[in-house]
Amino acid sequence: MAGLYVHIPFCHSKCSYCDFYSGLRPNVVEDYIDALIAELHLRKNEMSESFTTIYFGGGTPSILPIEELKRLINAINLAIDTNRVEEFTIEVNPEDINKDILRNYRELGINRVSIGVQSFNDNLLKSINRCHTSKQALNAIKYLKNDNWNYSADLMFGLPGQTIKDWRYDVDTLMRMHPPHFSAYLLSYEPGTRLYTMLQAGKVEEASEQIASEMQLIITTVATEYGYEHYEISNYSLPDRHSRHNSAYWAMTPYLGLGASAHSFDGKLRRINPANIKQYLNALKQGEIVATIEEETISEQFNDYIITGLRTINGLSLDILKQYFPDKYIAKMLDNAAPLITSGQLILNDNRLYIPHLYWLKSDAIMRDLILI
């Protein structure tokens, strides 16, 4: 099986925390769709497996005019065999959602929606430069719920000025809606973003580790009470409603990425498109593949397995690692893991290594101790 990812780098406005490649370029939407279709035809044979998931991410894919979205999906259906696609997700913003849009999505074969809520507090939404209001978010979720959609909602914690009381309100509000799936992300201050600049200037303060840990504990505890499985660091789902597309990433399943800044992985090689719309459009107009191959050593591939595997509830299977990597790599990793196992930050059970939920917020530091230099 394989996944198809399509990057739509257009937004209504730039969120102050976002470091994904996106911008305000609606004047090139038609040219961009042309380029995506051209790239698909040039690169579709990179995947030997059938596509089982499709994911439109961004940016804000829901910004696309419905006719352009239809043109793109029709081209995909003609270019590749989509009969085995089980999950077709589109990322949306609340302000874009209404009954007509959802009806169009369903008619186009989209069967899952990922909606970026972030918070139900209007003041917090303004602090991160989100365009929608809490009322728009609630209405959009009601549309999805009433139309029996498979959907996911995103929340963020550790926002500037966000209190424990604020976070409890967001969590309780979301739980009342009881979405099939949701994600809860700790705000990260990434270099190059507006929030990072504000942090450096002392205009905002990063949430303390204690506050972030308490917020993480709140969402995990409440989610468990409502029947959700915390199956990945930031993701929670009701039974059989996990994200198939994202789960495939964490299992190192091959995927084809189309669009400016998109990444691909064929099981051996990684390919990267430039984070530059002008360069991307010019290359595809000339019929040229714009993706460049990123050569990885076997050590780097091993590190990739560690980082993706330890993000999930299943952790790392030592049996699977032995199928792909030398014994000395695994032995070195286990040596590095020994003090973490002793301290309880890692658990080795039934030939499987995983991070217990209590330490998932510290997962980056734990992984750094395990990877091979």
Per-chain topology:
Layout: E1 2-8, H1 29-43, E2 51-58, H2 66-79, E3 87-92, H3 99-107, E4 112-118, H4 122-127, H5 134-146, E5 150-157, H6 164-177, E6 181-186, H7 194-200, H8 209-225, E7 229-232, E8 235-237, H9 244-250, E9 255-258, E10 263-265, E11 270-272, H10 277-285, E12 292-294, H11 298-309, E13 316-317, H12 318-324, H13 327-343, E14 347-349, E15 352-354, H14 363-370
Parallel strand pairs: 1-2, 1-9, 2-3, 3-4, 4-5, 5-6
Antiparallel strand pairs: 6-8, 7-8, 10-11, 11-12, 13-15, 14-15
Summarize this structure as a short list of keywords or feature phrases.
373 residues; alpha/beta; TIM Barrel; Arc Repressor Mutant, subunit A; 2 domains; nine-stranded mixed beta sheet; three-stranded antiparallel beta sheet; 15 strands; 19% strand; globular
Distance between the termini: 31 Å
CATH architecture of the largest domain: Alpha-Beta Barrel
Largest sheet: 9 strands, mixed
Number of domains: 2
- In one word, what is the shape? globular
Radius of gyration: 21 Å
Note down, in words, how this protein is organized:
With 373 residues, the chain is α/β, with parallel strands linked by helices. The mean pLDDT is 93. The strands form three sheets. It has a nine-stranded mixed beta sheet, with helices on both faces. Strands 10-11-12 form a three-stranded antiparallel beta sheet, with no helix packed on it. Helix 6 runs parallel beside helix 8. The chain is 42% helix and 19% strand. Strand 14 (347-349) and strand 15 form a beta hairpin. The protein folds into two domains: 2-250, Alpha-Beta Barrel (TIM Barrel); 298-370, Orthogonal Bundle (Arc Repressor Mutant, subunit A), CATH 1.10.10.
